[in-house]
Amino acid sequence: MAADLLLNYGSAADERSGNLGVDAPIGGHFVLHADGAYSKYDDLHVGGYLLSKDLREQALASPDPDIRALADLKDKLPNTAGRSDDAAAGVAYVDGDLNLGVSFSHHDARYGVPIRFSLDPAIVPEAPTIDAHQNRGDLRANVPIGGFFKIFEFRGGLSRYHHAEIEPNGAVGSKFYSDGGELRADVVQSERGGWGGTSGIQYLNQDFKIRGDEKYLPDSDNRRIGVFTLQTIENGPLRIEAGARIEFSRLQADEDLGLGTPQESRSFTPVSASAGANYNLVSDWRIGLSLSHSERAPTVNELFSNGPHGGSQQFLVGDPDLGLQKSNGAELSIHRTRGPVHVQANVYYNRYSNYIFEAPTGVIEDGLPIYEYRQGKADYYGFEVESDLKLGQALGIDWGGEITADAVRAKIRDFGDAPEIPPFRVLAGLTGTRGQVDGRIEVERASPQHRTAPEETPTAGYTMVNASLDWHPFAANPELTLSLTGNNLFDVEARRHSSELKDYAPLAGRDIRLSARIAF
Fold it and tell me: Which residue range or ranges hold the TonB-dependent receptor-like beta-barrel domain (predicted)?
């Protein structure tokens, strides 16, 4: 039998959580698995003020004393307390490469959504609580078949999900229902002379229903079936990959007199393909180039939305005339995964002929900002770099260093900068190991984001310092790790530009976390 127990405490939200997983053989090649998780937390402590600098200045200029008082809100993010619990159980038959399994899982959660404070005295901001529940069953099979195809793989699942949006007085404002199923079947080829690959089929069927005052989407369903293949050829230092996928998608929405939306039905056939190669140069360095053409169908939200979404604090307006989102892209990569220095770097460029995006309009409806789904030509380009290196030994400690950096630019023609694009970010870390103790300290710097979409506010940059210490008291089983972690040690005010609630809900402030993990 094998078991894994993890216990956590976090100070920023007085978070208490635990996870337990158990695997037990029950004879005859059968293995039983069970796991559970529980978490409970209070309103989140944040660094600094709740409102961003621009909104605080607007609040202080208001003649209304209640609005001016919003500028002084700090430290605690109201309506963010919650709890969640999960349970799952499954059984598998394992005999060499033959693996058959079935599982069932249940999820419950109740959590608050950060308040989008209004600077208009006539608008009462909402403070909804989400009460969510999901049941899911899954089936998997890995069956060796021999011959040209080595193995058959199958994954399938059915789920029933619903959640209620509860008002502060306890009344249920809206209920959301989503039921569906998905499956994927693959055949993996036997490798022949460096040639291998996987081909398969995927299917998705999902229904959506909303009942209540904050209905933003008519009753709708989404059905997709896709066929794909991925092929690889390796010849000495050269590796070539190519893939293709075709999908048949149908999205339907019922007529809804309350939303003012007619019955709609849209069908799409997106086709995507890619090809690339990487080559081993010298001293374990590999360089690669890939080219791709990608297409995707719009979602039901993008096509049919027309109402207030309490969960995201937006009034969403879809466009039933949206077409396929299409893009052509190229990516250049370089890797080194051996030796004292590991490097992984990518530079990419994508040109969209009809990029789908959420556009803030600056208009308020039902106390929420209106966001419209639109489509336009766009250019995305950026880079990602990751590196770690061994620095050697000093003071009896094995030292290492890590650095990560990424940046992206996105422009939509006849619109401007794309919304919610993160700024340049760099993270540098120093690690050390001595005996059974591991330590790490890191500094993350996010630059200010001034390249904003119309009606989008800029976001200030921040510098955050984190540190952690892990102690492994036993050299062998049971595996026990005791951890002390400090995130945002200097309690700085930090906001993610990619968050729709960034001007009202900063990131967690100083968070001291204690954890214990034991496995045997």
Answer: 82-489
Return d(Cα 230, Cα 79) in angstroms, integer.
46
Residue 416, SS3 per DSSP: strand
pTM above 0.70, yes or no: yes
Strands (E), 341-494: 341-365, 368-394, 397-412, 416-417, 425-434, 437-446, 462-471, 479-487
d(Cα 128, Cα 122) in Å, to the nearest integer? 19
Q: How far apart are CA 188 and CA 198, in angstroms?
A: 5
Residue whose entry in the numeric block shows the structure tokens 């998608």 = 249
d(CA 160, CA 181): 9
How deeply is 173 buried, as exposed, middle or buried, from its count of CB atoms within 10 A (0-12, 13-18, 19+)? middle
CB 210 within 8 A of CB 222: no
Q: How far apart are CA 155 and CA 102, in angstroms?
A: 10
| E-only strand ranges, 28-148 | 30-41, 44-49, 74-77, 82-95, 98-112, 129-144
Q: Which residues pair with 174 in a beta bridge?
A: 165, 212
Question: What's the sign of the alpha-carbon dihedral 50, 54, 59, 60?
Answer: positive
Helix (H, G, I), strand (E, B) or coil at 432: strand
CA distances from 6 to 9, 113, 470, 472 (A): 10, 27, 14, 14
- pLDDT tens for the chain, 520 residues long, are 899 999 999 999 999 999 999 999 998 899 999 999 999 999 999 999 999 999 999 999 999 999 999 999 999 999 999 999 999 999 999 999 999 999 999 999 999 999 999 999 988 888 989 999 999 999 999 999 988 999 999 999 999 999 999 989 888 889 999 999 999 999 999 999 999 999 999 999 999 999 988 899 999 999 999 999 999 999 989 999 999 999 999 999 999 998 989 999 999 999 999 999 999 987 789 999 999 999 999 999 999 999 988 777 789 999 999 999 999 999 999 999 888 899 999 999 999 999 999 998 889 888 888 999 999 999 999 999 999 999 999 999 999 999 999 999 999 999 999 999 999 999 999 999 999 999 999 999 999 999 999 989 999 999 999 999 999 998 776 789 999 999 999 999 999 999 989 999 999 999 999 999 999 8
Contact 210, 176 (CB under 8 A): yes
